[in-house]
Structure of Alanine--tRNA ligase:
Amino acid sequence: MSLYQFYRDPYQTELSTQVVSLDEQRLVLEDTLFYPHGGGQPGDTGRVNVGGRTVDIVDTRYSKDRSRIEHHLAEPIDASPGDSAELTLNWERRYRHMRMHTCLHLLCHLIKDPVTGGNVGAEQSRAEFDLSTPIDKLELEAQLNALIEQGASVSTEWLPENILDEQPDLVRTMSVQPPRGHGDIRMVRIDGLDFQPCGGTHLKDIREIGAVHIPSIKSKGKQNKRINVELVD
C-alpha cells in the first residue's frame, strides 16, 4: 500500500516532491505532508515553492472522487507536471490538531457510550456521545488529565476491512464511518486504552497532549451531549 508522507511521518514539516497537475488554484503533488480535510480533522495549511515562487496553501482536501489530494492555493502560480515543489507545513496548527485528535480518542476510552459526532480544531475540539448516565464535567476533566499525565504510546496499523464486519464494536463513531472499499482500514491504538479506526494524524505518546480543560458539556438532544475540550497552553 502506498502511503502519503503525512502518514509515514506526521512530525515531518518539510518535503521535496513534484507537481502532478494544477487545475486553477488546486495543486496536486506526487507526495505530500499535508493532511486533507476528513474525519472531523481540518485540512492542513502552509506554503509551497514552485519555480522560485512561494505561495500559501490555505486548505487541503480530497478531490470529489477522492482519487487525489488537492492543495488549495491562495493565488495563481505557473506550474507544470514534473516541476519540483518544496512544501513547508504550518506545524504549530497541525501539532495542535494532533494533540486535540488524540485527546478525543482518550474521551472515547473514558466514555463507553456511542459516539455520535466529533470535530477537531486548533483552539477547541468537541465530541458528542449518546449518554446513558449524566457526566460530571470536573470529574471528567480530572480523569482526562490523569490519563494524559500517566502517558501511553500511540501507534497505527492497517487491518483488512472484513475485520470490521467481524468486530463491528471497533467502530465507535456513528456519524463518521471509516472509508471502505480500499481493502484495508487504518487503526489507531493507544496502548492499553483505545483501539479504533481513524484516518487522522496522531501523537507518539499521549503525554504530548499536555493539560486540557473541559469548558462545557452541552445538551444536543435528550441523551446526546457535546463535550468541548481545550488545550491549556
Notes: The CA atoms of residues 179 and 185 lie 7 Å apart.
